[in-house]
Amino acid sequence: MMTNPGNRLTQGQFSFLPDLTDQQITSQIKYALNNNWAIGVEYTDDPHPRNTYWEMFGMPMFDLKDPAGILMEINNCRKTFPNHYIRVTAFDSSRGWETPRMSFIVNRPKKEPGFGLVRQEVDGRRIHYTIHSYATDKPETERY
Amino acid sequence: MSASETSETPGAGTLSDNARVDLEAEFQESRIQEVLDQLDRELVGLVPVKTRIREIAALLLVDRLRKQFALTSETPTLHMSFTGNPGTGKTTVALRMAEILHRLGYVREGHLVAVTRDDLVGQYIGHTAPKTKEVIKKAMGGVLFIDEAYYLYKPENERDYGQESIEILLQIMENNRDDLVVILAGYKDKMDRFFASNPGMRSRIAHHVDFPDYTPEELMAIAKLMLAEQNYRFSPDGERAFAEYIPLRMKLGHFANARSIRNALDRARLRQANRLFAVRKKQLSKVDLMTLEAEDIVVSRVFQDEAGPAGN
User: Fold this and answer.
1) What is the CA angle B235-B236-B242, rounded to 5?
2) Do A65 and B137 touch (CB under 8 A)?
3) Nearest CA of chain A to the CA of B111: how many Å?
């Protein structure tokens, strides 16, 4: 049974939708800026859902008023890592939250091989299940 | 929009050739008059500057109407250079300019980011580019005001990182014209030298605005305005003493126009407080607390030794 045709990675906001256009990304960032959230651009080639900490592309951006600067960074990142996953996160530093409030993917590799189910036999007949990204079989930088 | 009801070509958003647009309505709608009035109120004198600002505003407004007829398509170059001595109101005018541009829709946010060389140029190789870009990102959607911009270029040191910063700025000024407006400010002669050695910078700047020095009468008006803001005023004698003080101070070195006046008033307030404190037994009225007397001003060192170094 194929539940996710194309094996598109579904993490963060809007990931079940078609890729956001730059204009849509701009309006999302504008929303974050209006809430005074600090925005960071991050990339990875290891899309496992438990891989929470992606590499940061430059510093997180504080005190910005306009999305144009962030879009510039996103485009720089896309140019540097055209075949990586790139996401934008918006961090809320206000007390009680202190956590990312938004996170969405803005760039994906052309071909996403998806995840395989791995069964591991332990203690007699018990089975442990986990998932494994096909892409990570290859070494870093050669994955996509 | 203020366009008359005549047909608007569907889709393209441009008006047909015989449509009419209302300049007055457009002007009212943009609410720039408020900003211009505010500029008039806040800044004494500076007539040539105000005229230039008004001209620029008119140009932009007309440009906006031309856009509706698809006569102009690209964003006009809006980068400016403000030249003049210190304390002539360059930063204040830049602040108002940002607001005018915002109201006319040429910048999206209309905030002003004021920086100097230190904020743009790094300490070591590879430090400058991220630093400059950081500042540019902050200024996007608004106005980037570079004070004493000529310090960016130091011809005596060919390894100076300022050049790198200038190159990034030039690139952004050309490619991101929709996103930010750059205003360079500084002394007239030094800026002229800066532009002479950076022709690329000169050609990317559309408006050169020169700020004249204030006359003594204008400085007096500024002083009164400043005092009124802080609920102080001169006694008639005090006013006469200050009118004498201004030309004397102007002759001394390091005269920074309105800024020097502000400092002089701060010191006068200090002396007034001391004077009131010296006669503690007396009951003070509201007027006493508000008034600067002649004796608060004449003790200034400017009156004592006119040939002395720059000081009080």
Assistant:
1) 85
2) no
3) 8
CA pair distance A74, A106, nearest whole angstrom: 8
* Whether the Cβ atoms of residue A102 and residue A89 lie closer than 8 Å to each other: yes
Whether B296 contacts B268, CB under 8 Å: yes
Chain B residues near residue A68 by CB distance under 8 angstroms: 108, 140-141, 176, 178-180
CA pair distance B17, B15, nearest whole angstrom: 7
**Which has the closest alpha carbon to B181: B153, B163, B205, B149?**
B205
pTM of the model: 0.80
Using CB atoms within 10 A of its CB, is residue A39 exposed (0-12), middle (13-18) or buried (19+)? buried
Asked if the Cβ–Cβ distance from B140 to A68 is below 8 Å, we say yes
Nearest CA among A42, A47, A39 for reference residue A109: A47
Model confidence pLDDT, tens digit, residues B203-221: 888 889 999 988 898 899 8
Please, what is the end-to-end C-alpha distance for chain B in angstroms? 55
Q: What is the pLDDT of residue B156?
A: 84
DSSP B23-63: HHHHHHHHTHHHHHHHHHHHS-S-HHHHHHHHHHHHHHHHH
CB contact under 8 A, B142 and A65: yes
Tell me which amino acid residue B128 is: T
Nearest to B209 by CA among B99, B55, B39: B55
Round to the nearest angstrom and report the end-to-end CA distance of chain A.
25
Q: Which tokens belong to B88?
A: 């002539």
Of all residues in chain B, the one with the smallest CA distance to A62 is B138
Predicted interface score ipTM higher than 0.85: no
A chain contacts of residue B136, beta-carbon cutoff 8 Å: 69
Residue A58: list chain B partners with CB under 8 A: 130
The answer to whether residues A85 and A108 touch, using CB atoms and an 8 Å cutoff, is yes
* Of residues A138, A132, A135, A88, the one with CA closest to residue A110: A135
CB pair distance less than 8 Å for B179 and A66? yes
